[in-house]
Amino acid sequence: MRVMKFGGTSVGSVEALRSVKQIVEATTTQVIVVVSALSGVTNRLVEMTRLATAHDTSYEAMLPELVERHRAIIEAVVPRESQGSCMRVVNTFINESLSSSLGLLAANDTLAPEMAEAAADAIVSHGEVLSSAIVACMLPRCKPHFAPAFIHTTDDAEGRIVDWADTERLVLKEFKGDLTRVHVTQGFIAADSRSGVKTTLGRGGSDYTAAILAAILDAEALEIWTDVDGFYDKDPRANPDAKLLPQMTYEQAQALCDAGAKVIYPPTIAPVAQRGIPVWVKNTFNPGAPGTRIGPIPSDSQVISD
Ligand code: ADP
Ligand code: ASP
Ligand code: MG
User: Does the beta carbon of 225 lie inside 6 Å of ligand 2?
Assistant: First the structure.
């Protein structure tokens, strides 16, 4: 089984989603597809949260834009016979669930900080719920899953952390022995193990969701599908001379992630490194490119130091 995570740009346009469909359909083993929100949507949701918290109802005008962004994509990538039901899901989540969470923030001056934080997490969670609904409607015969049912967090002195014991139990219950070939779920979103209140794994956290699933299910590989050809020695967008690293050790990848390489969210590496699961960084827009393999291998000093 492989876990394939598709980031925001990889699900953010019609062209990207068509490529996602081809990539998933080209697989022959069992796969869990983990998706981020459509590119830019989490930022919009964060902005709407800010406005609602400031009792500025201009967030309301952003709701129809959000419906429109998802509608245009559904019309292009979802089979005609499923478009109506997919649109009903999108409308319900935006016009009922999202709108009421924003309304709660906007109407209350005196929300306790934990309540305000819970409302903010519930609001930003909508991005992945919406994108995963589209991907699940697009991929034939796939099985949709709701990540907060099995990715659980708890709080310790440092702040929010994954509740590994609870998550392991729930992930095994959700997926073990299920022979469905293609599963679809959300990255980033989770729930508190005691209260069930929605939480998130932090910005960029979809990579981490995918790593948690790969580790617990002992996947043969974790694939991070993004918008560049692989892991480079520096950000290829800012540095035209950046060099692609065809292979790296977990330690090399962790060091670059810790130094700010945005391509992988830093907590992602540890769970897969502990179990020796290889990580591939691949380009959704150029799937034929070999990408980067991160694994328990000696560094290719030639490539790293060139
Ligand atoms: P996704 O939405 O797929 O999760 P991100 O935007 O989080 O994508 O990460 C991909 C981006 O990371 C690339 O577009 C690239 O600009 C940036 N990046 C920063 N450092 C690196 C690096 N060392 N190698 C590759 N990409 C990098
Ligand atoms: N959608 C979330 C974010 O923008 C999580 C992710 O993309 O990994 O941070
Ligand atoms: Mg990312």
Answer: no
pLDDT, position 109: 87
- pTM for the predicted model, two decimal places: 0.96
pLDDT band at 67 (very low <50, low <70, confident <90, very high): very high
Q: What percent of the chain has pLDDT over 70?
A: 97
User: Minimal CA–CA distance to 248: which of 240, 263, 239?
Assistant: 263
Q: Which residues contact 232 (CB under 8 A, 6 or more apart)?
A: 239, 242, 243, 244, 245, 263
Tell me how crowded residue 31 is: count the other CB atoms within 10 A of its CB: 23
Structure tokens, 282 = 């691949």
Strands (E), 169-269: 182-186, 189-192, 198-200, 221-226, 247-249
Helix, strand, coil share of the chain (percent; to 5): 50, 15, 35
End-to-end CA distance of the chain: 35
pLDDT digits (tens, 9 = 90+) for 249-302: 999 999 999 999 999 999 999 999 999 999 999 999 999 999 999 999 765 544
Place of tokens 């540095």: 239
Q: In testing the pocket of ligand 2, which one of 6, 130, 188 has its CB within 8 Å of the most ligand atoms? A: 188
Residue of 202, 35, 37, 36 whose CA lies nearest to 120: 202
Pocket lining: 188 vs ligand 2, CB cutoff 6 Å: yes
| pLDDT given at position 306 | 41
Q: Which residues pair with 225 in a beta bridge?
A: 6, 282
**Taking the domain 2-294, which CATH number applies?**
3.40.1160.10
Instruction: Point out the ligand 2 atom lying closest to the alpha carbon of residue 202.
Output: 9
